[in-house]
Amino acid sequence: MNITSILATLAIGFFISANASGQGTTSTTKPGLESVKIQSSAICDMCEKTIETEMIYEKGVKKVDVDLSTAAVLVDFDPKKTDATKLRSALVKLGYSADGTPGNPEAFAKLPLCCQNEGCGKLPEKP
Fold first, then answer.
1. pLDDT at 80 over 80
2. Which residue of 10, 58, 64, 71 has the fewest CB atoms within a 10 Å radius of its CB?
3. pTM for the full predicted model
4. Architecture in CATH for domain 34-118
């Protein structure tokens, strides 16, 4: 074996070991936590900031990530302290839609003006 082969073998072994121990680039939910993906109407950076900042304070929530390209809110949570239904309700109470339920109108009126103008908490109108 030449030095290149040895280094390649070591690199592959390290990569496999790192991924097996959760140290790689893939994201997994920690043991004891569950994840829920909530389809929302969030479309701008202010939506992302508001949702991520406010949802993290919900009981049992460990991580919140808003994907603006799909308008999805991914929440990692402790199932002993909350559940997906309560998290959807919390998102609606912030003024944003959650899996087909429109945002609370009073909360929507308190969203940043850019969100109100874009209709971030409202469901698309049916033709």
1. yes
2. 10
3. 0.71
4. 2-Layer Sandwich (3.30)
